[in-house]
Amino acid sequence: MVPDTPSRRGYLSALGAAGIAAVGVRSAGGVDDGAAARGNSSLTDWPMPRYDAAGTGYVPHARGPGETVESVWKHDPEDLSSTFSPPIFADDRLYLVSNSVAALDAFDGETLFTYDGSSQSNPAIVPVDAYTSDTLALAGAEGLIGLNADGGHSVLGRRFGMRRWRQNGESPDSFILGPPTISPPVAVGSTLYWADSRTDILYAVDASSGRTYWERELGRENYGGEPGRPAYLDGIVYVSYYANGAAAFDAETGEMLWETEVTDQLVLPVTATEEAILVPGREGVTALDPENGDERWRFDHGGNQTEGAVAVADVSAGDDSSGKTVYVVGRVYDDDPDTPNSRLYAVDVETGEQQWSAPGDWREKAPVVGDDVVYATEFDTIAAFDAETGELFWRFEVDSPLSTPIVSGGMLFCTSFETVQALGPGGAR
Amino acid sequence: MSDRTALLGSEFGEEERELSVWSTLWTAVSRIRRDPGLVVPFFFAGVVVTIVDYLRLRDSVPVSVVDRMGGGGIDITYLIYPTGSRTTTTPFGALVDLTVAPLLTTVGLELTAFLAVGVAGWLTLSRALGNRTKSARLFPYLGLLALLHVAFRLLGLVGTIGGPVGLLLFVGTLAVFVRVFLVPVLVVAGDDISAAFGRSARLTRGYRWTVFGLVLVVGLGTFALGSVSLVGPLLSATLVAPVHAVALVVVAERIEKAEGTERAERTNQPERTDRRAGFRSDT
């Protein structure tokens, strides 16, 4: 624990100052920054991996540290084993998964409660009408489970009422080398969509009761499906699966609307936009027509990506285009050890044309965008770029490998091995 | 005809048999065939429980679905008191932070199922005991069921324990089941709940293998019928619970008779009445 952890009041005061200063140089201050400036704690939630159900990794009205940065706090929660999974943020709490689940006070990093279990996916926060507290849904060896997001109640030092339900789905097959990493659920209203990467089944689940609304098997005969995180947009659930499949399902009924194969060796989790369904793969990104799955364009970076996702942000400057840009990392093969081995690309979502690129050793291949700044993580360094021009604002190095960050309230939160880091605007404290 | 002969079954034309699993079950089934009304309370309890399970599977509060066949193993579904199976249980964590309407709905449904099974057990045991039960024994019987319900829920909080410790716990639990086998019928017959536990342990001494066999038959029967899709709770409540209830009466009668005979032989005196339980008549 860093000894100079700021108080909640001091932290909010600092955020307020940063927010007010930022409003002066940007065209529009968002809800998030306004809340911080007023000194209340209604910061923008980051309720699930990749921020929203579409998987954009883009939070329009929440600002990160902006053009300067420094560490606000870092914390080593008890029972947190090694993890590079990004946290999620809701109701002023950070939720982390590293086998066990930990909830931390976002203002000082103190552990609020933990849940011991065999959890392997990132969680999602879901409001449910039947309860006064949200449901924290995540997947693990037990399948999909729903926890009390407030942690239940503590009696004589022991927590009760922490777990609400376990989805009554198919029991997962055992795996001799331990369970593989499991895709996280996404939340839409009080419904969860979850693709079980062990059983190749896509589920729609009631987040209140854990009841399965519908389930559909993914993949083709004699192929493992290994589906990734699904994406939801306008009543349709999109999912990609091994080796190069992608499909769309009616979110209400589970009816398959279309299924296709993309031109790539291996597909990664999809991102849904109104313009295109973006399917990143080992060698590039394929944009599919949301209506029928036809290919609209393809961007080849020629790299060898085996993990990650794309971010999609609206950085329009008032021109005729949609202004949406796809941010994707591609690896570059080069024998020169001094040459960065990957690039961050910005690509027009309508045409697939490259707008800019930036070299770096991007370890985590899933950039995120807060307001107009793109954040990408190298091995132990996080970097911020102007989302429109690709101008580098800063690089910030820590002492261990970093996860993809999340953005809220002028802050970046990320995990780093057994540590949680909060980065804020430079000179804020 | 004395009450004693009625208790031993001669009133029903039954041949007296020594206490064994099959003779007990045969006698219980024979009594039910002669008096089908013994099945009626648990049939209606099964209907109520099936409706409650149906509603609980569709509301917004989580349930644990009891998958009896999914695990590929077998289970001994035995809860000491006569009852059918349930398809759903409510995890403790599902009740924490519930808003008022779902909480009242859930508690109301669970209470309805509890009362249906409790009243059915009381009616069946009372009818099987004939005039040997006292009035107003419903509430002590419901109190016993509530106590057992809480005890099983607390045991459930411990979770599943495997390995040698789990095996020891399993054997220990079965031993407890054998000792408390007669508690439900003793409570309906007039014993206090606390006294019934001690008396059941004393009465079953010397008959524990037979009682153990009955526990297995009832537990496996409830498991097997309860595993039938959709109608499992109704089948197990209608076909197993009444047999369990009447078997409790049969076992209590025969043990009391055997003990009375032994006492009479030792003292060469006519056996005396145990008015508390009402299993013996005045001579």
Question: How would you describe this structure to a colleague?
Answer:
The complex is a heterodimer of chains A (429) and B (283). By secondary structure, chain A is mainly beta. Chain A has a single domain (8-424), classed as YVTN repeat-like/Quinoprotein amine dehydrogenase (Methylamine Dehydrogenase, Chain H). Helices cover 6% and strands 43% of the residues of chain A. Chain A has helices at 8-25, 31-38; strands at 58-59, 70-75, 88-90, 93-105, 111-119, 124-126, 135-140, 143-148, 153-155, 158-160, 163-166, 186-188, 191-196, 201-206, 212-217, 231-233, 236-241, 245-250, 256-261, 271-272, 277-280, 284-288, 295-300, 311-314, 324-331, 342-348, 354-360, 362-370, 373-378, 381-386, 392-397, 406-408, 411-416, 419-424. A 5-stranded mixed sheet of chain A has the order 1-28-29-30-31, with no helix packed on it. In chain A, strands 2-34-33-32 form a 4-stranded antiparallel sheet, with no helix packed on it. A 4-stranded antiparallel sheet of chain A has the order 6-7-8-11, with no helix packed on it. In chain A, strand 17 (236-241) and strand 18 (245-250) form a beta hairpin. In chain A, helix 1 packs across helix 2. Chain A is globular. Chain A starts with 7 loop residues before the first helix and ends in a 5-residue tail after the last strand. Chain B has 283 residues and is an all-alpha fold. Chain B has one domain. In chain B, 63% of the residues lie in helices and 1% in strands. Chain B is built from 11 helices and 2 strands. A two-stranded antiparallel ribbon of chain B has the order 1-2. In chain B, helix 3 (40-56) runs antiparallel to helix 10, helix 6 (163-179) crosses helix 9 and helix 7 (183-189) packs across helix 8. The longest helix of chain B is centred in the middle third of the chain and has 30 residues, at 100-129. Chains A and B meet through strand 11 of A and strand 1 of B. Chain B: The chain crosses the membrane at residues 38-57, 100-126, 138-161, 167-189, 209-228, 234-252. Chain B: It comes from Haloprofundus marisrubri. Chain B: This is Glycerophosphoryl diester phosphodiesterase membrane domain-containing protein. Chain B: Residues 259-283 are annotated as: Disordered. Chain B: Keywords: Membrane, Transmembrane, Transmembrane helix.
